Amino acid sequence: MAKKRVVCISDLHCGHLVGITPPGWGDLQKEKMGRIRRECWIAYRRIVKSLLPIDVLIVNGDMIEGKGERSSGTELITSDREEQARMAAHCIDIWGADKIVATRGTPYHTGVGEEWENIALQFCETGQSLHKIGDHEFCEVNGVVFDVKHHTGSSSVPHGRKTAVSKDQLWNMLWAIDDMQPAADWVVRSHVHYSEGGYRINKSDMSWAITTPALQAMGSKYGKKRCSGKVDWGVVVWDVDSSGGVEWQVKSKQILSQKATVTCL
User: Fold this and answer.
1) 234 lies in which domain range?
2) pTM of the shown model
3) Which residues have a Cβ under 8 Å from the Cβ of 93 and sit 6 or more positions away?
């Protein structure tokens, strides 16, 4: 088996004013939001170029923003969820991955009675040898098992941010004891828009549990009014060799266009 490269993207929130936005959508929106979108897209394309070619793309939920009912659509580039799904498909296709494993995100964003992320994958031109989507997925790459799901809990304090994903790691271990889930080498969660985690030693084996950064930048009304923690922007990449050895990194960028400004009085 040859070395394989796995990349995880999540929380694209396509259709939001600061969601990841390909060229041709949303160019006439608010000036600061437009600068943020442009900076994010340029950074995204550079990350993609630096990591190609890849073997497996994991898309870990919240591909689209949805109808934005809680803000009456005032934070949207478009409320057309089919158009949002096409935007997400474009963001996925530029990786050129032959295998795509996806999870469904938050129903508020991606559909309560519908599954718009299923539709986004149908719009994709890549992933021809494997197109899989579910609510909780397990995939194996060169013997390394990934436990992938969008949702996990969050924390408002820095030292508590690893707790929820560690809980998910422990639950996987208990399910595995009952032989109802594969024992995961990597527990991967998203949703919280920050990258956190760590490892534990089980006898001679090491297993990891992490949350991934998002591809939506700062700028939502909810985030500005209700949240205080840092937002991490970027993707996660693993290189898995033929014997199951793993090298991994978070490819991140500080989005300077979203920097807070001071009003001098």
Assistant:
1) 4-139+212-258
2) 0.95
3) 124, 125, 126
Q: Which amino acid is at 89?
A: A
List phi, psi (to 5°) of 75: -105, 15
Q: Is 52 inside any structural domain?
A: yes
Q: Is residue 171 part of a domain?
A: no
Instruction: Read off the tokens for 233.
Output: 């922007």
- Helix (H/G/I), strand (E/B), else coil: 260: coil
Closest CA to 110 of 195, 16, 194: 16
Q: List pLDDT tens digits, range 192-219.
A: 999 999 999 877 688 999 999 999 998 7
Cα of first residue to Cα of last residue in the chain, in angstroms, is 64
Please indicate, yes or no, if residue 249 is contained in any of the structural domains: yes
DSSP string of 81-92, one letter each residue: HHHHHHHHHHHH
**Residue 50: φ, ψ to 5°:** -70, -20
Which three-class secondary structure state does DSSP give residue 129?
coil
What is the number of domains present in the chain?
1
Q: Which tokens sit at 144?
A: 């390394």
Domain assignment of residue 226, yes or no: yes
Q: Is the model's pLDDT at 28 over the cut of 60?
A: no
H or E element: which one contains 42? helix 31-51
pLDDT at 260: 85
Write out the H or E segment, with its range, that includes residue 163.
helix 163-177
Structure confidence at residue 148 (pLDDT): 98
Cα–Cα distance, 89 to 87 (Å, whole number): 5
Give the CATH number of the domain where residue 60 resides.
3.60.21.40
- Kindly report the number of other CB atoms within 10 A of residue 160's CB atom: 12
CA-angle at 232, arms to 165 and 171, nearest 5°: 5
pLDDT, mean of residues 101-127: 95
pLDDT in tens, 137-173: 999 999 999 999 999 999 889 999 999 999 999 999 9
